[in-house]
Amino acid sequence: MSRPAPHIDVRSITEADLPDWSRALHTGFLRTPDVTETEVTDRASYIVPARTLGAFDSGRCVATFRSFEQEITAVGGATVPADAISNVAVTATHRRRGLLSRMMDHDLTAAKDRGDVVATLIAAEYPIYGRYGFGPATWAAQWNIDVPRAGLDPRWAGPENGGRIDIVDGADVRKLGPELHERVRRAQPGAVDRDERWWQVATGAVRLEQAPWTEPFFGVYRSSGGEVEGLVSYLADDHWGDGKQPLNTASVKWLIAATPEAERNLWRYLCSIDWITTVKSGWRAPDDLLPFFLPDPRAARIETLADWLWVRVLDVVRALEARTYDGQGTLVLEVVDGAGFAGGRFRLEAAADGASCTPTTAAADLTLDVAELGALWLGDESAVRLAALGRVREERAGAAKVADALLRTSRRPWCPDMF
Ligand SMILES: CC(=O)SCCNC(=O)CCNC(=O)[C@H](O)C(C)(C)COP(=O)(O)OP(=O)(O)OC[C@H]1O[C@@H](n2cnc3c(N)ncnc32)[C@H](O)[C@@H]1OP(=O)(O)O
């Protein structure tokens, strides 16, 4: 049972609170509560104190919450401002007293006032965020490729299309990565922007105390015209079988590609490395092309399939007008939002050359909670499926099917980033 704790002060932190706040974050995330000066200095360099919340009991920090500015790509390639939420941790001694609810309300109210279109997060556990209006908007899968079973020609000696792959170092990735990623993320619904720090952390230029650094290999794919179209970061282990056979695993930390050719060749490269018998894909889109690059797709076995980015719509009109629609049609949505940020009845008129969404008093076609709208917004979830589950109500027979024809996309959305 939830016990209210009105004596606990929930507020934005100051820089002086950071050591205590960091200790509370470690405690909630079950990391050793030691906090070094280096970590505090590093955190001070990127957090926004006004958007970094703490709950304080008799002066001691017992809960943490942080948000930051983000851009997320909608269906069709437009980006919208998002309130990205991270570092949510309530110390076990203070759980289930409403501290997360208070911090969330504080943050979403500010995000709404700022004009953010959605809020986003990656949920530690599925049941936490639905109550705050978040819905699972993208999913992610990890594959294990059994390389000897994939049916690949072992004589492969590099791209056969005139492109090339080179091993580069972290400094090269910091030069080449941001421009490539800008192209990739603007074409990928569900992708989010990366700042300079992302590339510094990904290449070891900034090392996090809580995540000991092992220098990975970096590979770059260039097209036959010399254009950088793909990058991969991977680690390899050192494992040999009893019969003196190599049984090494290449674990992909991240792989981005602007073209299917870049994607195909980077996976082909990883599967061609001598001694490597297993390739772990890292987190990919659930409909990634990867298995079908292999002559025998069954050699790629899904290890994990789970919800990834959760979206909370804060502004229905701007969220629905920001995206594109392949089909043409009209839909009146009754959006229920217990927190009062985004509820109302809206008429969506969608066509291939643009969409309009306006408040209306017309009869609703579908009634749904704002969390279900979050799951539908990027085109991943099906309104027909949600109706079958009783989570979307059809006010007009067939309306869920109309919603699917308008909202769903041919490729699934994907957020490559964890934040
Ligand atoms: C974006 C991110 O950072 S994800 C990381 C989230 N953090 C973690 O998982 C770290 C470990 N866990 C925790 O820190 C905490 O338990 C939290 C943050 C998940 C929840 O914080 P609390 O302060 O306990 O939540 P709060 O008391 O506000 O709960 C509100 C409601 O959500 C429910 N709830 C909270 N957490 C969970 C959960 N993990 N599973 C199911 N229900 C939950 C509560 O029971 C309560 O329900 P009620 O209103 O019906 O009584």
Automatic annotation (TrEMBL):
Location of the active site: 129, 419
Entries under InterPro entries matching the protein: Acetyltransf_17, Acetyltransferase_Eis, Acyl_CoA_acyltransferase, Eis_dom, GNAT_dom, NAcTrfase_Eis, SCP2_sterol-bd_dom_sf
Binding site for acetyl-CoA: 88-90, 96-101
Subunit structure: Homohexamer; trimer of dimers.
Family according to the record: Belongs to the acetyltransferase Eis family.
PANTHER family: N-ACETYLTRANSFERASE EIS
Name of the protein: GNAT family N-acetyltransferase
Organism for this UniProt entry: Streptomyces coerulescens
